[in-house]
Write a structure and sequence with these properties.
Bound molecules: flavin-adenine dinucleotide
Number of strands: 26
Structural class: alpha/beta
CATH topology of the largest domain: FAD/NAD(P)-binding domain
Number of helices: 9
Oligomer: single chain
Radius of gyration: 22 Å
CATH architecture of the largest domain: 3-Layer(bba) Sandwich
């Protein structure tokens, strides 16, 4: 690609965290061409984590969510098109077509279209009072509904379900959670650490219906509860569904780009088309640390990938910077805050250090003696030690990991 920058147009579809950070980085790196940032939502780019936490509880205003201040896009000559949906992509013609028919030509394109909540398809799924959470407006609607509800049923005990359950309790609602795992967050954290979250929710008065699924939402016009597969009806006049999210890869699919649980990108965030990149929740990225493709739905991943994608878009060969960040995410529920570094899909041992019952502990997920991932819960000075253990290639002693008197830095 010729790099006379003033002739270039870089288009970003998806105006949320990854897209906004990419647009910012293009300008920080001195790109002088056109930057067009296209987003379906009415809002300028904002961050989602508070939508299930402080914003949902009414503790933080919308103004705290935005990635940039209002004047940022105009000041940096970033053409932000809000309320605008990209309808199709023609990689051969280097063109994006917007809903309404306008065509936007691009030299290089970033797809940062994110993910969308998985919808239930079972009887009653369309009743009023069945809500999902992804956007700012969803969080507004949920706050109003929780405040008005006599009892909230949360379907799913992943991060969104667990955080919504905690926030709903903090807002004073009665809350029941229905989920297939034996403990909340079981798939991600396993039974040991998931058990800590089970106890935490129970201590805060959440009724947990675990190891069961729902087969119908009951109600006449509006939701009145759910029926579980093992029989009992869990009553509630608001049903919040948090059963995972799917990558929004429709543009890429129709354009014939390679997909596999999201848009397939290499470590430079390049798709199967050399002028199209992808970043954030939608991107299934080749991870050089784990030697596998990983699609993450985490704030830090969107934040960092947007920046790396922009640098690679600016490079004629598209390979200025490999994405080699350790996966990282965080969650807050009641008074338990946690950070998780690494990636563990399959482990053979979990080691705990500290006091899980007292809510201050570390946890490590190991495979063949290697630390795949580590978590700190209400402990805030061990992050570097955890990251070094996860990045390190050595096998470690589980006994030493469990012993708080041995500094993490001495274990490698
Ligand atoms: C309620 C909630 C709580 C969360 N809490 C945490 C947390 O505590 N910790 C953590 O690490 N992560 C958390 N996350 C995850 C984090 O918010 C996401 O990883 C992050 O938002 C991903 O950013 P993204 O830019 O890749 O995609 P998204 O934020 O999904 O944004 C994609 C954007 O693209 C737009 N779009 C899609 N298709 C088109 C199209 N065809 N045309 C135009 N625009 C389009 C969408 O409208 C959307 O605005 C949370 C997510 C949610 C929903």
């Amino acid at each position: 690609m010729a790099m006379n920058q003033t002739d270039q147009t870089f288009v970003i579809v998806g105006a949320s965290l990854a897209g906004a950070k990419a647009a910012e980085t293009l300008r920080v790196e001195g790109f002088e061409g056109r930057v067009v940032l296209i987003g379906e939502e009415a809002e300028r780019p904002y961050e989602r984590p508070m939508l299930s936490k402080e914003y949902l509880r009414g503790e933080k205003p919308a103004g705290k969510l935005y990635v940039h201040n209002e004047g940022f896009y105009a000041d940096n000559e970033i053409e932000l098109l809000t309320g605008t949906r990209a309808e199709s992509l023609d990689p051969g013609a280097h063109e994006v077509t917007l809903a309404g028919g306008d065509r936007v030509p691009y030299s290089r394109l970033l797809l940062s279209t994110g993910a969308t909540p998985r919808r239930l398809s079972l009887p009653g799924a369309d009743l009023a009072g069945v809500l999902y959470l992804r956007e700012m407006g969803d969080s507004d609607a949920l706050r109003a509904a929780i405040t008005a509800a006599s009892r909230v049923v949360v379907v799913g005990a992943g991060w969104i379900g667990s955080e919504v359950a905690a926030s709903a309790r903090q807002l004073g609602a009665e809350v029941a959670v229905v989920a297939p795992g034996a403990v909340p967050l079981e798939r991600i954290l396993g039974p040991e650490v998931g058990g800590v979250y089970r106890d935490l929710h129970q201590e805060h008065g959440v009724a947990l219906h675990l190891s069961t699924q729902i087969e119908a939402i009951l109600g006449n016009g509006s939701a009145q509860g759910v029926r579980t597969t093992d029989g009992p009806v869990v009553k509630g006049d608001l049903v919040v569904v948090g059963v995972g999210a799917s990558p929004r890869d429709e543009l890429a699919r129709e354009a014939g780009l390679t997909l596999e649980n999201g848009i397939v990108v290499d470590q430079f965030l390049r798709t199967s088309d050399p002028d199209v990149f992808a970043a954030g929740d939608v991107a299934a990225t080749w991870n050089t640390l784990y030697n596998r493709r990983i699609r993450l739905e985490h704030w830090a991943n969107a934040h960092n990938q947007g920046q790396v994608a922009a640098r690679n878009m600016l490079d004629p060969a598209g390979r200025a910077a490999a994405y080699d960040k350790l996966p990282y995410f965080y969650s807050d529920q009641y008074d338990l805050g946690m950070e998780y570094n690494g990636f563990a899909a399959d482990w053979d041992r979990v080691v705990l250090r500290g006091d899980p019952a007292g809510g201050e502990f570390l946890a490590f997920w190991l495979k063949d003696g290697h630390v795949l991932a580590g978590m700190n819960a209400n402990v805030w000075d061990q992050g570097d030690g955890i990251k070094a253990l996860v990045r390190g290639d050595a096998t470690v002693s589980a006994e030493a990991l469990a012993d708080p008197s041995i500094p993490l830095t001495d274990i490698l």
